[in-house]
Amino acid sequence: xxxxxxxxxxxxxxxxxxxxxxxxxxxxxxxxxxxxxxxxxxxxxxxxxxxxxxxxxxxxxxxxxxxxxxxxxxxxxxxxxxxxxxxxxxxxxxxxxxxxxxxxxxxxxxxxxxxxxxxxxxxxxxxxxxxxxxxxxxxxxxxxxxxxxxxxxxxxxxxxxxxxxxxxxxx
Length: 171
Ligand SMILES: [Zn+2]
Description:
By secondary structure, the chain is of the alpha+beta class. The chain has 4 helices and 6 strands; from the N terminus they run αβααββαβββ. The protein has a 3-stranded antiparallel sheet, with helices on both faces. A 3-stranded antiparallel sheet has the order 4-5-6, covered by helices on one side. The longest helix is centred in the N-terminal third of the chain and has 41 residues, at 3-43. Zinc ion (ZN) is lined by residues 132, 134-135, 138, 153, 155, 157-158.
């Protein structure tokens, strides 16, 4: 391999890696936005804070939002493209690892993390989020139903509700 070819090869790999990263980040961002529409519909604005970006961008934004976290996040490398911030100042949960998943599975993965973060945080600890429209006592679960990322009743009550559309459903 000539020096020029080697250089071109390195640049090409770099560009491919960058494209993969930006795609993973954008998919995470789109899925987070969708799920956050439901968070806002159910619990109001500010019920959860999620930041999205490359590991370096995450370290920067989290370092600003939670000074002192930089060291915690040094370990959060690899395919993390988002971070759920704990409401009680806990370190939160990383989002990512779904670059090979179908879009609907990505949405379900993001919904799982955000749901877990919310109901285990001090602000909404144990809340039935999102509230089952039929039984009104327990949370719904995120699953892909008929190729669509949906909230479903674990007891088979209410039919699946597309994630991102809870605002359209009477509570
Ligand atoms: Zn139910």
